[in-house]
Design goal:
Elements (H helix, E strand, L loop, with lengths): L17 H23 L1 H24 L11 H11 L7 H13 L15 H12 L14 E3 L2 E3 L25 H6 L11 H13 L6 H20 L7 H6 L3 H8 L10 H21 L6 H18 L8 H9 L1
Antiparallel strand pairs: 1-2
Helix pairs in contact: 1-3, 1-7, 2-3, 2-4, 3-4, 3-5, 4-5, 5-12, 7-10, 8-10, 8-11, 11-12
Length: 334
């Protein structure tokens, strides 16, 4: 008789750890962040650095208070939260406001619920909403782009790019009915947050995550369709009052939400059907808030609302257990 040595499942492993996943997402988001620095200059660097330092220090303090090893702070989760929050802020945001928002996201949005894997709400979006409520003027002061120009003597950096005499400008979300050149929306050469700098780079980063198997296409596709379908219908009925689907998809944080925010592994549903419903709900809420709400952007509010519904979605749309009695009876009756 053959001798078997059974071992405990699982028998296979993808080779990806939490740390690997976090840094792959950061890598995918980095080109868009660097493009934002190129467009907005040192103010953007200040926002990014302030968020990263605040998030890491808050993570270390929370881990120490819980008696955990502070080395867990370098797993990439706090850095990703900082990067997502920074990408949702205007480049002109004062450093202390960005730092306060990140500390709130890590302490209240993450560790208050038990740390990584236990938070019901996306920490970065929780920090974004808190800052918008507390500092509405600072968070709606959009800085105009001022990328370096190439001349005979090399690159020339304007005073605005260096953080001197910043010039404010309107974001496309302020008036979506105003027609924007498609190339400006695609590349992001307009005022807005760092996450609005390039829909193309953000989409490419998201496709990279899908290719690596970090995220599945259900949420990105359903979220974008959840925006595009009602926007197209409303635009066909009344084009003077409702913007086109292209304007909605290419403006604001729609692409960032579709590929990097709504796809958060902790706060989104686990089943394919649940993810489709979750993404469609986020997209519809984004369009409703943009079209009828008091705020020009609805990404953070939409994601947090759907985060609250994730447990219910998982409960009712969970996949059937393999070999369950209901499936057996159904196949037998067929």
């Amino acid at each position: 008789m053959a001798a078997y040595n059974p071992v405990a499942a699982p028998h296979t492993h993808s080779g990806l750890s939490t740390t690997n996943i976090m840094y792959l997402v950061i890598l995918a988001l980095s080109p868009a962040a660097l493009h934002g620095v190129w467009l907005f200059g040192l103010p953007a660097v200040t926002v990014l650095v302030s968020c990263c330092i605040s998030a890491w220090l808050s993570e270390v303090v929370c881990l120490q208070l819980q008696g955990k090893n502070w080395l867990s702070s370098v797993d990439g989760s706090s850095l990703l939260t900082a990067l997502l929050l920074a990408m949702s802020l205007p480049a002109s945001t004062p450093w202390w406001i960005a730092s306060f928002g990140c500390a709130f996201a890590i302490i209240i949005g993450k560790h208050l619920y038990g740390g990584l894997g236990h938070n019901p709400f996306n920490p970065a979006m929780l920090g974004r909403v808190m800052l918008l409520i507390c500092f509405p003027i600072e968070l709606t002061n959009w800085q105009a782009t001022s990328s370096p120009s190439l001349g005979a003597e090399g690159l020339a950096f304007s005073q605005q790019w260096m953080g001197i005499d910043g010039v404010s400008a309107a974001t496309p979300l302020a008036d979506l009915n105003q027609v924007q050149a498609w190339n400006e929306l695609l590349i992001g050469t307009h005022a807005g947050s760092l996450g609005e700098t390039s829909a193309l780079l953000i989409a490419l980063g998201g496709l990279f995550l899908i290719w690596r198997g970090i995220i599945r296409p259900y949420i990105p596709c359903s979220l974008l369709l959840g925006i595009a379908i009602p926007a197209s219908i409303a635009h066909l009925i009344n084009p003077q009052d409702f913007a086109s689907a292209l304007s909605h998809l290419m403006s604001g944080g729609a692409m960032l939400a579709a590929f990097f925010i709504a796809t958060d592994l902790v706060t989104s549903p686990t089943s394919p059907r649940g993810q489709l419903l979750f993404g469609a709900g986020c997209g519809l809420l984004i369009w409703l808030i943009r079209s009828f709400g008091s705020y020009p952007e609805g990404v953070a509010f939409a994601v947090l609302i759907m985060n609250a519904g994730t447990p219910v979605i998982d409960h009712y749309l969970r996949p059937k257990i393999f070999g369950s009695q209901s499936l057996f009876k159904r196949s037998k009756g067929a």
